Each structure stands twice: as C-alpha cells, then as structure tokens.
Amino acid sequence: MATIEELQDGGAHGLSVFRFQIAALVGLYTIIVFGALYLQARSSTVEALRSQGESYFYLVVTTRAWNSQHGGVWVEKRPAVETNPYLAKMGIPADLRTENGVDLTLRNPSAMTREVSELTDIGFGVTFHLTGKDPVNPGNAPDSWEHAALDAFEAGESSAETFDRTSDTPVFRYMEPLIVEESCFQCHGEQGYKVGDVRGGLSISIPTKQVDDTLRKTATNLGMLAILTLGVAVAVSQAFVTQLRRRLDVANSLLSSMAVTDDLTGVANRRAIMARLTQEFSRSKRSSEPLSLVALDIDRFKRINDQHGHAVGDAVLKEVAARMGDSLREYDGFGRTGGEEFLVIAPETDSEAALRLAERVISQVHAGPVSVGDLELTVTASAGVATIDSRDERGDDLLARTDLQLYRAKAAGRDCARAGEPRKA
C-alpha cells in the first residue's frame, strides 16, 4: 500500500504533467483556431479570385458573341492598326474602303480579344489568352497548363485554375472552355467543328502580388494575435493550475497531519509514535545513548464511559492528553497508542530520569479535577517505565517490558509509576 509521501510525490508529478498537458492543449487549440482563420481567409481570397476570373470570362465571351453576331467589327485603319493576316488565309475579306475613301479593317472576335487583353494588361495587369489545340494563329497555341486544362474540358471539366509563381509577377490563372456555336463557323468552318464541341478555351491571368501581400499581412497579424492569445491563455491556465496546486498543498498538508495525528486528542497517533520508536531505538543502538519508554494508562476509564457516556469520556481523554503533553520535554515523543493508553519516548534518558518523568506526568494528570460541563471528575493515571538494554533487539522488545511495568503499577493500586531495572547481558 502506498505511503502518504508516495501519494504526495505522485500527486506533484501528476500535477506537473497536468500543467504541461494544459499548456499543450491550449497551444494546440490556438494553432487550430488561428490556422483555421488563416485558411478561411486564404479560401475567401481564392474564391474572390475565382469570381473575378469568371467575371472576366463572361465579359469577354459576351463581347465576342456580340462581335460574332454582327459578323465582326470594322475599324478605321491607322498607323497602329494592322490588317489581320489570318482572315485572308480563311478566305475572309479583311479590308475595305468606304465611298468617302476611308480605309477599314475587320476585327473578328479573336483579334478583338487579343487587343482588349493588351488594354487590360496596361490598366490592371490582367491578360486574356485565346487558345486551342488546333489554332489558326500560332500565337494562340496552349502552354503546358493550358493544354492539360483543354484535355480536362474534353473529359467534362467545366473550369481550371492554378497559382503560377514561376515568374517575378505571380498570377492566378483561370480558364474555361469555349464551346462551338453557329456563329463560330464564319471563321472556323473549315476546321471540322460541330456545334457543342470544345474548340478551345479562354485563359485569364490575374496578378496576385497585392493579394499575396495582403495574405502575408493577414498571416503576420494572425500569428502575432495567436502568440498573444497563447501567452494570455497559458498564463491564465498556469495561474489556475498554480492555485490548484496551492489548494492541493493545503489538502496534502492536512492529509499528512491526519495521517500522523490522533483525531480526538491532537497528539501523535499509534502509527506515528511507533515509527518514532523505531527511529529512536535504532539511533540508541548506534550511539549507545540511553532510551526510555513511559507507558501511561488512565485509571478506571471504562467506569467514566459507563457512568457518564462516551462524550464525557472523549472530553476527559482530550484534557488528560493535554496535561500529559504539558509536562513533557520538547524532544520527548508522545502519542496515543489506543483507547486510554499513551506512550512517551524519552531519548537520552536513563531509568531514574525516566521514572521521575513518569511521576511528573502522573502528578500533572491528577493536579486538579477535570471539568466537563457541570461535572468535576477526579482522574488519575498509572505509568510503567523501561530503559533499553543489550538484550532488546527491537523497539517492540522494549515496549513489551514497559507494558509489564505498567501492569505492575496497576496491580500496586494505580495512580503510581513502576520502573524496571535494565537487564544485564
């Protein structure tokens, strides 16, 4: 069975483990919460970029549809406006002159998309790229990511997206397929498409430097807030554990006291006084210093219980124990061994000094009546004294001889002390 000290040591270790577990749980919870907040912020950012990509896609597609419905758009030829050479390859007249001599050139949906992309690139850094696996214009050939997206569209995917940070200008790339409609055959009738086929895709690149900077600031702010929260949470939890430790220390102290103290009289209990006897006996054997025991017993205590009740008996025990304790020296051990029996351990005390000590204790016990309510009770005690000798091998041997002397005192009429002479080897 574990001792009180072992239980206390185990409790202290358990509390240290609990302190660490609390800190670890607080840390884990903080990481999870703020990690989730960052992931939510990043997810919201990606969703915003995706929505932006979708908006650009439908704007461009709608504009292309308008262009296609009107058979293209004629624009005035100026020094910076060149004829689309690929229209002639497809047998489509690309230039004309009006009756008043103005030269015009045709802008089909593809050329219009390219020129709009140049404008959005200058204004916002956003670019569009029309691409397909069989482009008329080699400039519309897909790169590796676009080619993989086109394969995915043919397999049924509706969109593709990725972050491209391979260059100095990181971008979010978004792409959706372009589906063949009747109006497409004006320019692509010779390529064998059917209505509903995937004839290519529109790839949109949106710069993310500002978004990345915002995410980094968000991550930094969340990290600092997480550290602050973690510090406060750990401090609060550790303060709670410290308060718990104080309360446990008080409880352990009370438990330790209860383990060695007699509940009724407040003196050492049998377990504690017998442990003290073992220690003093071993020390006396090593040092050859004398050691004496005084066994005390309240005379006719059963009669007090029978006549006045156990409550009065308990009050007598408490008062007698206090009187006995007051007559002892500071270094004497004193405890209740059971019922109305007490034991005094007198280190470095020979038999004569121990007998005088016993007589002083007995005298203190019957120095005056014990008052319990309206009762005035005369109480006496008997004592037996024995001193260690060479034949004693254990503390129990010395205790047995002490009890024998107590029986002699009882037989001699009580209210007296009897001592046995140390035996010779």
**Alpha carbon gap, first and last residue:** 39 Å
Radius of gyration: 52 Å
Structural class category: alpha+beta
Q: Widest sheet: strand order? A: 9-10-8-13-14
Question: Largest sheet, described in full?
Answer: 5 strands, mixed
Helix content: 40-55%
How many helical stretches? Answer: 11
Tell me how many strands there are.
14
What percentage of amino acids are in beta strands?
Answer: 15-25%
Sum up the structure in keywords:
425 residues; alpha+beta; 11 helices; four-stranded antiparallel beta sheet; five-stranded mixed beta sheet
Provide structural commentary.
It contains eleven helices and 14 strands. With 425 residues, the protein is α+β, with helices and mostly antiparallel strands. The radius of gyration is 52 Å and the shape is rod-shaped. It has helices at 4-69, 85-89, 109-124, 144-154, 185-188, 209-260, 270-287, 301-308, 310-326, 351-365, 395-411; strands at residues 73-76, 95-97, 103-107, 127-131, 160-164, 171-179, 198-207, 291-298, 333-338, 341-347, 370-372, 375-377, 381-387, 417-419. The strands form four sheets. A five-stranded mixed beta sheet has the order 9-10-8-13-14, with helices on both faces. A hairpin with a 6-residue loop joins strand 5 (160-164) and strand 6 (171-179). The model has no long low-confidence stretch (mean pLDDT 86).
Topology:
Blueprint: H1 4-69, E1 73-76, H2 85-89, E2 95-97, E3 103-107, H3 109-124, E4 127-131, H4 144-154, E5 160-164, E6 171-179, H5 185-188, E7 198-207, H6 209-260, H7 270-287, E8 291-298, H8 301-308, H9 310-326, E9 333-338, E10 341-347, H10 351-365, E11 370-372, E12 375-377, E13 381-387, H11 395-411, E14 417-419
Helix pairs in contact: 1-3, 1-6, 8-9, 9-10
